[in-house]
Amino acid sequence: MDELSPEDQFRLNVLLAQDIKAIRIDEPNLTLHALLGEGEASMPLHPNCRPDKYFRILREHLSGHALGSPGGYPVYLSRWTRHGQVESDNLGHLLLIGEPEAVIAVVHSPALTDTIAGYAWWTMPTIENARLMLMREAVAKGRMGAILTEFLVEHLPFLQEEHLAIMDTVAVLLYAGTLSPDQREATWRRGKRQNSYYVAFLEMCPDGLTEQQFVEACIDILNRPETQEVVTRTLDAIGRHFSTSGQEGNVDARTRLAQVSSTLTNPIFARSTAIGSLMRRKIEPVTSPILADLALLK
Which residue, among 34, 9, 16, has the nearest Cα to 24 in the 3D structure? Predict the structure, then answer.
């Protein structure tokens, strides 16, 4: 039967009568956790059928209570999730159905508030969600700004060779403007060991670097890039910077660097998935003249 066990039904009814802010379901441990207006609560689950079917019944019950949609997480919302099209009216309610996809819909929403971000973070504290929420000004400037920043800073070292994740994480931190001076300096210094850290600085705050820092970072990256994304994002950053900066120094070199972009390597990367040393050999005809111009500006 598509019903909750009597024990779970009774406990859930008692729980839902309280001021609940968010719900998460720990499927491996058969436990439902709830964030309340004051504190937290949890209840063990007692499936009376296959666990996967029981979790579906449970989420349908929660959805009916929170959204008036007993069919579970609405399909149309699932389609909109990653396009930021969930508006403010249902935002908090989506955190009450124990559905991970609904949490993702919340963190993608442009209507996200600092308060709801806190509830979403309790529900699903992941690096991706931290990055998404910190991009919202209301969150970056609110109570959650410091919490999410501290989490991302602490987890950066664990990304290790995930160069794209490193670039995206540092870019969000710089965009949000939530790093302390010490955190910002420590993050920049990590580029000496892993130059993918530098890429986000070139993209997000080239004006916050001295000309020497910018040029030396570009040279370091292009001498030993590890992935195609590191190369393309660096080339685009170089072109943007020199197309808008002043004309001091070697004007010819600056003019050529202003024309640099990822379109230079697109034909190469379209035919190859190479990374590391093999990739560096393939793109040498592109990077060598760029490195020569950068050297003229040192």
Answer: 34
Cα 127–chain centre separation:
6
Q: Where are the beta strands (DSSP E) in the chain?
A: 20-26, 31-36, 40-44
Q: Report how far residue 152's alpha carbon sits from residue 140's, in angstroms, rounded to the nearest whole number.
A: 13
Q: List own/partner pairs for 210-216 with CB under 8 A and 24 or more apart.
A: 211/249, 211/297, 212/298, 214/241, 215/294, 215/297, 215/298, 216/298
**What percent of the chain shows pLDDT beyond 70?**
91
Delimit the domains of the chain by residue range. Answer: 1-124
- One-letter amino acid identity for 186? A
User: In the structure encoding, which two tokens stand for residue 103, read together?
Assistant: 């949490």
Residue with tokens 């050999």: 281
Smallest CA-to-CA distance from 229 within 253, 262, 252, 272 is with 262
Which residue, 58, 126, 128, 133, is CA-closest to 97?
58
Other beta carbons within 10 Å of 154: 9
Contacts of 177 (CB under 8 A, 6+ apart): 140
pLDDT of residue 150: 97
Please report the pLDDT score of residue 66 as a whole number.
Answer: 86
Q: Which residues of the chain have pLDDT under 50?
A: none
Rg (CA), the chain: 24
Burial class (CB in 10 A: 0-12, 13-18, 19+), 182: exposed
Instruction: Tell which residue, 208, 211, 232, has the closest CA to residue 222.
Output: 232
Structure tokens that stand for 297 in this block: 């500006």
Per-residue pLDDT of 129-188, as tens digits, reads 999 999 999 999 999 999 999 999 999 999 988 999 999 999 999 999 999 999 999 999
pLDDT attached to residue 161 = 86
